[in-house]
Amino acid sequence: GQKMSGLRKDFLWGGATAANQCEGGYLSGGKGLGTVDVIPHGEYRKAIMKGEMHYKDLPEDAYYPSHEAIDMYGNYKEDIALFAEMGFKCYRFSFAWSRIFPTGKELEPNEEGLKFYEDFIDELLKYNIEPVVTICHFDLPLTLVEEYGSWRSRQVIDAYVRYCEAIFKRFNGKVKYWMTFNEINMLMHLPFMGAGIMFEEGDNKLQVQYQAAHNELVASALATKLAHDINPENKVGCMLAAGDYYPYSCKPEDVFAALGKDRENYFFIDVQSRGEYPNYAKKFLEHNNIQIEMGQEDEKILRENTVDFIAFSYYSSRVVSADPTVGEPKLGNAFAGIKNPHLPESEWGWQIDPLGLRITMNTLYDRYQKPLFIVENGLGAVDTLKEDGTVDDDYRIAYLEAHIKAMIEAVEEDGVDLLGYTPWGCIDLVSASTGEMKKRYGFIYVDKDNAGNGDLKRYKKKSFYWYKKIIENNGL
Ligand code: BG6
């Protein structure tokens, strides 16, 4: 039998991926182009992700990692069997919107797309793996960008709700856990990648971003309502790219700066979780002359349809100082912060802070008092495949072990209510920020390199066997 730990008996151990980073098959089964299909690897990637360069201006030989990715589209049975072998209780993945509504404008869904996900979900259920679905993980049909300017327009709210209705009905009773938007706050950092926003000359960027945010928040609330109407058992979550800001020093100015930086992020899920714009956000908009165009019913929709759980990704904490001369802001997961002298960092410069996970969990739980779900965490690292087909990824095991320990302390010692833990990229996949394959997170190695060479064969890493044990013992 299972030993006791402070975690729920039905704790959802698993792993997480996203369609755009692993499926490939970018035009298979009637799929339309998604935003991510025009985001290249290489020197133009940042400018495209930021919405500052038009993808039509990319060179003809640009390489798009999403087109094939790790071909989970063709390999999902084998991949799910490996997840089952590790003992996954759940698997978090996303639907590619443009597989189901190729342009986003259709009134009826593409049956082939729905059928693909139905088979996929049935395969998970065969092994008793609970599907946890991200409805929109960094990709929307490109047509919605070209014709409506993406989330600038309320027409995209209608398209999203149509999409949600199709999937909630089709997978009713099979999928219970849903997330409306992956890392909704990414809109403020990488607007094209996060939300399909491209800037035009003369745009007031903040105005555009907050209007898009508002439209996404309304869409999220409408989806929550629909999910609950269709089946009261459905659980809908928001999803935040989390990681608390630390003040660089105890100088009150630094502490105040950290409060402000945290609010930039919490704004989104404050609305999704509490149902209204917080006062600090109203004042911020007012002082920056940002006018949000609201529909008559919007405030009511937001108020009446808050989320059931708070999902988040956590890779690192962040640091801010009120004094710009203290340190160069550096990037980690698209969020600028300065170096924390007390923390080691990954090969990609992301700072490693397990206690920061416990701190972030406490902040979130104190703020919302709703169950939390850690739906991303992990270490992107260079792996070496040995002659015998194994990978000694002790560094990954060390990272995950420390974070799992901190997570259990937050539950056992602080009383945080936690639904589950799904480390990111449980199988190697394309990196979102860099487009690389070299930056690997998986328990399963996939033979492919940055340029697209490799036979896509899967290999079990040392961490595969380690994670299987962790799940078996419910974290002990
Ligand atoms: C999160 C995203 O930002 O971090 C994922 O939700 C992403 O899509 C993950 O892959 C890790 O980031 P990266 O840039 O290392 O792939």
Notes on the protein architecture:
- With 476 residues, this protein is α/β, with parallel strands linked by helices.
- The protein has a single domain, classed as Alpha-Beta Barrel (TIM Barrel).
- Helices cover 38% and strands 12% of the residues.
- α7 packs parallel to α9 (205-230), α9 (205-230) packs across α12 (298-304) and α13 (354-368) packs parallel to α14.
- The longest helix has 26 residues, at 205-230.
- It is globular.
- It starts with 11 loop residues before the first strand and ends with a helix.
- The model has no long low-confidence stretch (mean pLDDT 96).
- 6-O-phosphono-beta-D-glucopyranose (BG6) binds next to loops.
- Residues 18, 21, 182-183, 241, 313, 333, 376, 380, 424, 431-434, 439 line the site of 6-O-phosphono-beta-D-glucopyranose.
Give a brief description.
By secondary structure, this protein is α/β, with parallel strands linked by helices. It is built from 15 helices and 14 strands. It has one domain (12-244, 353-472): Alpha-Beta Barrel (TIM Barrel).
Mean pLDDT: 96
Shape: globular
Strand line-up across the major sheet? 1-2-3-4-5-7-11-12
- Largest sheet properties: 8 strands, parallel, barrel
* SS strand fraction: 5-15%
Tell me the structural class.
Answer: alpha/beta
Count of individual beta strands: 14
Task: Report low-confidence residues grouped into runs of 5 or more.
Answer: none
CATH architecture: Alpha-Beta Barrel
What fraction, in percent, of the residue positions are helical? 25-40%
